[in-house]
Amino acid sequence: MAGKKKKSVARAPEKNQPSRKPAKTASAGAGVQKNGVGRGTNPARVRAILKGLDEAYPAATCALTHENPFQLLISTILSAQCTDERVNQVTSTLYRKYPNPEAFAYANPAELEQEIRPTGFFRNKTKSIMGASKLIVEKFGGKVPKTMEELLTLPGVARKTANVVLGTAFGIASGVVVDTHVQRLAERLDLSKNTDPKKIENDLMKIIPEEKWIIFAHQLIWHGRRVCRARYPMCAECNLYRLCYYPHKTA
Ligand code: SF4
């Protein structure tokens, strides 16, 4: 998900590349903490991970093309079970036809369904988009609300979408976006032992400084797409290698 700016693949810089020898980190003997937080959450280790991510992805941001908070909201709803590239293809024409919340709110649902069909789950997404747009028009004066509580009242909007909109569109750190990449990376980097996104988010909010919540999620998403892929993580390319406890590293 990203503003309009698309960056080229960010690689870990050659210099300062940590040794690939698996680390015996200070946390290795810490054991699993009671609250389900991973064993690797001691502050020094977390700081080292944040530093590595900053070095590799200093300008990570959302990859969904958008010009305003409303478009980001719609694109994020469309991105469920769909790639950002596909969403961006669809929205490149969609936002010309539907330029504001009113246009979506009172759209012809059969037409809208066909227009967003390539993103999958198009019937449910149409209901969510029209329902959210209607509420924005009729209850929020045509503006996307800026609080988690209000955003969660919109159809089709759960914490992940609300965090994306608040963080990327408004710069409000309301939590940590937990998508499939963040979920996978949190486990591989041993930052959380939980599998439920809300619990993972809680774990991350405890160990990541609040001022890093927004970019940290973007950085993990970028890392998950470019290097730490679900099926074939490119561990030889990874500047977090020494900090990673994943037992199936590929190098
Ligand atoms: S699994 Fe591999 S690519 Fe992923 S964080 Fe660990 S070392 Fe890096």
Write the layout of secondary structure elements.
Elements: H1 43-56, H2 69-78, H3 84-97, H4 101-105, H5 109-116, H6 122-138, H7 148-151, H8 159-170, H9 180-188, H10 197-207, H11 213-226
The protein binds iron/sulfur cluster.
Iron/sulfur cluster is lined by residues 188-189, 227-228, 233-235, 238, 240-241, 244, 246, 249.
Give the gist of this structure.
This protein is mainly alpha-helical. 47% of the residues lie in helices and 0% in strands.
Tag the structure with descriptive keywords.
elongated, binds iron/sulfur cluster, mainly alpha, 251 residues, single chain, disordered N terminus
General description of the model:
There is one protein chain. The protein has 251 residues and is an all-alpha fold. It is 47% helix and 0% strand. It has helices spanning 43-56, 69-78, 84-97, 101-105, 109-116, 122-138, 148-151, 159-170, 180-188, 197-207, 213-226. Helix 1 (43-56) crosses helix 11 (213-226), helix 2 runs antiparallel to helix 8 (159-170) and helix 9 packs across helix 11. The longest helix is centred in the middle third of the chain and has 17 residues, at 122-138. The chain is elongated. Residues 1-32 have low confidence and may be disordered. Bound molecules: iron/sulfur cluster (SF4).
